[in-house]
Amino acid sequence: MKLNEIADRPGSRKGRMRIGRGIGSGKGKTGGRGGKGQTARSGVRIKGFEGGQMPLHRRLPKRGFNKPFPLKLHEVNLGRVQQAIDAGKLDANATVDAAAMIKAGLLRRAHDGVRLLGNGELKAKVAFSVWGASKSAVEAVEKAGGSVTILAPKEAGESAA
């Protein structure tokens, strides 16, 4: 078999129907578009129109809110940090921040910061400098003998404890 002999199975490709080509073609006159009116025209169609009844998307209440400028934080689990330390990509003695994680291949880019999550087990004593951390992550790091420095600004409701 040669490249020029390769072909589709017979009947696998259907020919294009030429519409609007006379009564005998079976797709003449209206060209498969039914009667007259808006739906027979090209380009216009009322999406979600329910014959004058209030459409579903207007009957349902509005809910929720989207922050206009949300922070894009990366979540990194302690298990992945431990894997990087075991593989020799991260130095446990130096402060682990976003730049160190990028160099180790845990992240591609920093964006607005890194949030440390407590999934997995951390055995090494590591000093972290991150935007945020969950309570379980802070507990796990301190249990292993390390420390966590939070870079996020303190919110008004938080106490200085």
What string gives the helices and strands in order?
HEHHEEEHE
Question: Per CATH, which architecture of one domain?
Answer: Ribosomal Protein L15, Chain: K, domain 2
CATH topology of one domain: Ribosomal Protein L15, Chain: K, domain 2
**The CATH class of one domain:** Alpha Beta
As an assembly, this protein is: single chain
**Cα gyration radius (Å):** 31 Å
Q: Which geometry do the CA atoms define? A: elongated
Helix % is: 10-25%
Number of helices: 4
The total count of strands amounts to 5
The averaged pLDDT comes out at 91
Biggest sheet strand line-up = 1-2-4
Structural account:
It contains 4 helices and 5 strands. By secondary structure, the protein is an alpha/beta fold. It is elongated and about 85 Å long. The model has no long low-confidence stretch (mean pLDDT about 90).
